[in-house]
Design goal:
Helix 1 crosses helix 6 and helix 2 packs antiparallel against helix 7. Helix content is 77%, strand content 0%. By secondary structure, it is an all-alpha fold.
Length: 166
């Protein structure tokens, strides 16, 4: 479950980085994004575990609700919002993309998933996918990331529903 969740949370990196115009510093940008996708989930897990102690009887329902709402948000998100603003620096865009990992990992912390496995997998997946997309994006001819975003939205919605019955 942790590996699947880590893979799903990196889909937004693929979508956003497919539109970035980066010629130099691709490796550094991929490493920076992977670091952020490990740092924010660490704090998210901590917040989720803390919340689970406070709301111990409702933690699985609340985390399922949060995951489902994030999935619905991804499904209903406007396609025009996917294209990264060209005036923003790529490192700022990487920071913004990585903030999603915090909110998702709060729910995972409430579910008391394996923190280390998720954080390491999230960092590795993020680095791998970010670097591959930055290198090969011209060959893929990505028009928009709506299909990837919808897949991630459905996956988060299903995980949220499943966690309510856990």
């Amino acid at each position: 479950m942790e590996l699947f969740a880590a893979g799903i949370t990196t889909i937004d990196v693929i979508v956003v980085f497919a539109f970035l115009q980066v010629r130099r510093g691709r490796l550094a940008l991929a490493l920076w994004t992977a670091f952020l996708n490990m740092l924010f989930p660490f704090f998210g897990f901590w917040a989720g575990e803390f919340s689970a102690h406070i709301f111990s009887t409702w933690s699985s329902v609340l985390s399922g609700l949060f995951l489902s709402l994030m999935g619905i948000h991804m499904l209903l998100q406007d396609d025009d919002a996917e294209i990264a603003d060209k005036s923003m620096h790529p490192y700022v865009i990487a920071l913004a993309v990585s903030l999603d990992a915090f909110s998702v990992s709060v729910s995972f912390g409430m579910l008391q998933m394996n923190k280390i496995l998720f954080i390491v997998a999230s960092g590795l997946f993020t680095f791998f996918f970010a670097y591959i997309v930055l290198l090969w994006k011209g060959r893929w001819n990505v028009k928009n990331g709506s299909k990837l975003r919808r897949f991630a939205g459905v996956a988060l919605l299903v995980m949220g529903i499943m966690s309510c019955f856990r």
